[in-house]
Write a structure and sequence with these properties.
The structure is a single chain. 36% of the residues lie in helices and 20% in strands. It is α+β, with helices and mostly antiparallel strands and 174 residues long. The strands form two sheets. It has a five-stranded antiparallel sheet. The chain starts with 15 loop residues before the first helix and ends with a helix.
Length: 174
Amino acid sequence: MTVPGPSPATPLTESKSDREAVSRWLAGSLNRPANAHQEWADTGIAILALGRRLSAVRIAEDLVYAVTATTVPATVARVLREVLHGPVIHDPRGQRFYALVPASPSSGRLGPYATYLGLGHFVGVPRVESTAPSRFVTSYWAAPMLRPGDLCDPIRLASMLAVGSDALASRDES
């Protein structure tokens, strides 16, 4: 997998109604969606249930940086959007990225740098407007969700994980 070349910026969720639709869809992972909206209003992060509407793959920051060949947030975001075709959350404090994927079970081993999080797990999801790192937010959308239900392609994610794992293994052998 090669890192894609420059391309026009992918538009963020385009309108207020689009952002509201994405927020409603994400909040629907909870039995009480109003709780998510309240958490977003109070703290900027809502803790959402995984495994029914969506799941996540927790990815080590080092793997993402190995694939993107940079730590520059704007470049990382562009590459993730182009490679995964779906939403990714970055938690800089935890040094993790979370690719949001369909709620189906993991299709196999993800390697030593990634963990599938499905039914029985939760993930902190930032407000849809949080699309850049800041000292005021703990997590942000490295690649925002553009439409309700728009999730990462699991096959493309598996390929990215394999490439990144190989790159890190090669680096560690040197």
